[in-house]
Amino acid sequence: MSAPPKTEDRMSLPRHVAIIMDGNGRWAKARGLPRTAGHKRGADAVRNVVVGAREIGIDYLTLYAFSSENWKRPASEVDDLMGLLRLYLSKELAELHENGVRVRVIGERDRLAPDIVKMIAHAEELTAGNRGLTLAIALNYGGQNEIVGACRSIAARVGEGALAPEAITPELFAGHLQTAGMPDPDMLIRTSGERRLSNFLLWQCAYAEFFFVDTLWPDFGKQQLEEAVHEFSRRERRYGASSA
Questions:
Q1: Is 71 part of any known ligand binding site?
Q2: Could you tell me where the DSSP H helices lie in the chain?
Q3: Read out DSSP for 216-243?
Q4: Any idea which positions bind Mg(2+) (predicted)?
Q5: Is residue 73 annotated as involved in ligand binding?
Q6: Which of 7, 21, 131, 140 could make an SS bond with 107 (beta carbons 3.0 to 4.6 A apart)?
């Protein structure tokens, strides 16, 4: 296991890293394998990156596991992905808990199978008191739907007279998002060479540093994460201010 980062090194670490895990299908196709094989290797990459993030000293890691648009994929592929999710939650939960990882799932649960919903609830309840890495899994998640949901919630409060329109601030709005209580991502990584957000954390990534890497997700691990974090430490984040 790697040594924990020194105090001075932690100052330049991103507190929250979000990752769009892309390229499982292309990884499998390049090897003449079915897409299922790519997803299975992708699940192994999840484990490696979670361990790596914890060892590096990152506080929050959000992984885009299944978007609200992914239901458009063939039913057999969706079933395979859900099966891998079941396997991950059942196989990895004990180790995550033992290592102080807090599990949190964002996204809508209404289309998920009842047994998966129960597994998610159990994982969140079991790890709620952990104070190590927070692992947020975006499942059946869509950034636009999340923003619309926040608007509806706020509009209902205004309609009830419980909230004045002038009291609506970015901070209040953020508190109605599914990531409430989490800091916004400092950096967003997308694998496979694609350069788009794909409806992921649209509000939260307003000031995130973007890292687009050519590595396909099944080949992404701690080393690649460390390289991205190192590059992050070299960037100057100005938040609209002038360069020093």
A1: yes
A2: 7-10, 24-30, 35-56, 75-98, 114-127, 143-159, 170-174, 222-234
A3: -GGG--HHHHHHHHHHHHHS---TTSPP
A4: 22, 209
A5: yes
A6: 140
Q: What is the pTM of this model?
A: 0.92
In angstroms, the CA 83 to CA 102 distance is: 22
Report strand pairing: 134-141 vs 102-106. parallel
Residues 194/17, Cβ–Cβ less than 8 Å: no
Q: What is the pLDDT of residues 84-124, one digit of tens each?
A: 999 999 999 999 999 999 999 999 999 999 999 999 999 99
Catalytic hit among 9, 44, 48, 70 = 70
Residue pLDDT, tens place only, 141-165: 999 999 999 999 999 999 999 999 9
199 is catalytic: no
Q: Which domains does the chain have, with CATH numbers?
A: 7-142+184-234 (3.40.1180.10)
Give me the residues paired with residue 105 across strands.
137
Is 69 assigned a ligand-binding role in the annotation? Answer: yes
Report whether 115 belongs to an annotated binding site: no
Count the neighbouring beta carbons within 10 Å of the beta carbon of residue 84.
17
